[in-house]
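A note from the maintainers: we've had questions about how concatenated examples are separated. There is no special marker in the raw files; a new sequence line simply starts the next protein. For clarity in this README we add a label.
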Amino acid sequence: MITSSAADKLKSHFRGELILPSDPRYDAARSVFNVAIDRRPALIARCASPDDVIQAVNFARQEKLIASIRGTGHNVAGFAVCDDGIVIDLSRMKGITVDASARTVCAEAGCNWGEVNDVLQAYGLAATGGFVSVTGVSGLTLGGGLGWLVRKHGLALDNLLSADVVLADGRLVTASARENDDLFWAIRGGGGNFGVVTSFKFQAHSVGTVLAGIVLHPAAAAAGAIRRWRDLEAMAPDESTQGALLFHMPDDPSTPEPLRGAPIVGLGGVYAGAVEEGERVLRPLREYGPPLVDMFQPAPYNTAQRMADFLWPAGLHSYWKSSYLKPLSDDAIDVVVAFFARVPSRRTVIVLEHNGDSAWDRVPDSATAFGHRTWPYNFVVTSAWSDPKDAERNVTWTRDFFDAMRPFAAPGAYVNYLGGDEGADGLKAAYGAKLAHLAALKAKFDPANLFRMNLNIAPASVVGA
């Protein structure tokens, strides 16, 4: 428990907001994207500046509190909040500055990718990161950074130039290729294990208008449509980042009657190059079937980044499972289609991504802590439902689905897609042979494991104890 005298001492040095359980804002402040997460922290510290973060970190260390770090976005594991400890909440830190001549952008830790790319769009620039606009800059970058520009420009962390980090001892340092390069290596993939990043500096890219959208096919045609997408991906240029999704169309008046509530396979994404060339490259995908609907059109990049937002609304119970895949086989596709046919919730979305043979796997594996650039396909089940009574059947279906996909799974996983219950298996899947080096760096920067509300990398001294 936090004593009133301790809280008063923190308050005297804190510019942001301190929210205690007695505060009428408490329940809203502790809620996260996944409503299945119901944790009750002793204190929520909404930081207004890096100095507030320093004060909150020092307070957590001195009071021997568990600390969770909250940015923004939609991570379903719920690591952003903790029971009985302190939430160091960065969601109000939303400063964004652009150097158009250098094509760089600095974003504070409370920004999401939609906010960053809204600012960049005015300069004809974009930052690579996020398939959905509400995805947080912090969590996505620290764990990797997939998004609509990944095949052309790599992961978000591949475009990170520097970061300001508050360490467990309360020091604010800069991590880059020139300063604290070992910390810089670790935070590019190692998640929030090594400190609290308060701001990020990214390389941005000339993007402007893209060709973006999706073609929709009935679920009965899903196997053939996904195979067509897979075969075309073998020839896809770096400018094209396309995925396959299985979902139900919204059951509301905004959806045309023939599609309302219908099970669908969608094939689509972004072509980040000349629109005319994109029309040529994507024609075989768009003409196959033919589709029920072709929704591809030229769009500003920041608009394109919002096109999938409706698939992952806030306020639902969520449970995710994910793994990289070996080359996507017909048998694997058949399993995906079969499980979608008996999905228990119409809010669940199944995603197949193709990231390989592109900028993302041309980065040397040793360059960052990010694991596994060798597997070209990713599989993620984003199960979601409204009624808490439906949790068991949705979780069971998801686990059964994941088990059925094990014969096709690669020995690796994308840390940002893990659901939070994988434990040691999740660490091994996410980092592989890099885990020992990460544990050694954890011992250097956070020997007491203050930052453990994450897919936790224990300090090497703890590992060997």
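[label: protein 2]
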Amino acid sequence: MRSIWLIARREYLEQIRGKAFKVTTILIPVVFAVIMAVAILPSKYWGTGKHIAVATQDPALAIRVRDQLVADKEAKITVDVVAPATAADRQKLHAEMDSKQIDGFVWIDAPASGKEQVTYVSRSAGDLTTEDRLQSDINRALVEQRLIDRGNPSSAIASLTGNVDITTMLYRDGREVPSSVLSTLFLGYGMAFLLTFSLVMYGMNVGRSVIQEKTSRIFEVMLSTVKSSDMLAGKLIGIGAVGLTQILIWIALGAILLSSALVTSWMAGMTKPQIPVVEIILLCIYFVLGYALYSAFFAGLAATCDTEQELQQYAPLAAVPVWLSFGMFMYILSNPNSIWSILVSMFPPTAPITMAFRFTAQFPPVWQIALSLALMVLGIYIVLWLSSRLYRVGILMYGKRATLPEMLRWLRYS
């Protein structure tokens, strides 16, 4: 046990004192904040400032659609009216789009059947925000026009078609608390991103550490006084403690940032994300278990490699569960208690990330958390059992790449 502690202490201090730890501790939150800012700030200006035309045979309908679009102050849309419109007017609108006088136009046909046919022609195929605004505003304008055509007074139209604001609340611990879909989205993505980065980065660090000491032949000296199993355990504990230290620093910085006046003013009108202490503790536990799983996996692989380039070839194996987890991000947030969300949060390689998603959406039942943690412990035991046997033999092998049959023989010999 003393040997394990000494090796763990050496690994921890070596990593903590290194320049890479200091740079990543500061730089990663900054990069993440910049990424979030780049994603959020431009979204306020998506689909704004457009210049479009509304063309239809009914002048009253065209004016009503124009008024509805202009009433959306956030969109800042400039609307021209072409009514009554003819086929020649459509060709003229095409020419205006070619000369970039307008960004697009809405063409409304009102056949005898009474069901309008609306076409939106745009110079941009990916202008989803403008298309969504047009869908809502034009539908409302058409409903208002139909009500007027059926004899309803104009003064009553606003009360009949007025919007209703919905306040979102979350039921948690027997009480209702304010909630925000956007805050939940960013919180879940942020926690999962930090977990993913830390798990993969420090798992790879264990592999690189094995490769560096293996190529320097320092293992041959160390093995004369320390068992290989103690060396592996000390390395996993030491580097894992570095990762946990970094995550705790990030959590503290995040708490300070959320309470700052700058973030408070920036998030005005939004619900601040709240993370209960029990979820922070569980996230730390999932980090420790996830780190043990990934680092043991990379340590076993590194023992079969001679260079870091060979180890890098195995990196996509760790990326597969990450891709699977983030691929189910929106599904888990919308359906946190579905069978697929439960299954993927029970699978050890994806459990740390998917559980972070489920925590932000809805706290899972205790038995599911307990089962997920138990399966992770079982998965760690199996991976450690395999990796330790590869480690014992592969750590002293160099000069050629290990083949699969050789690895299977190592498992039998050790």
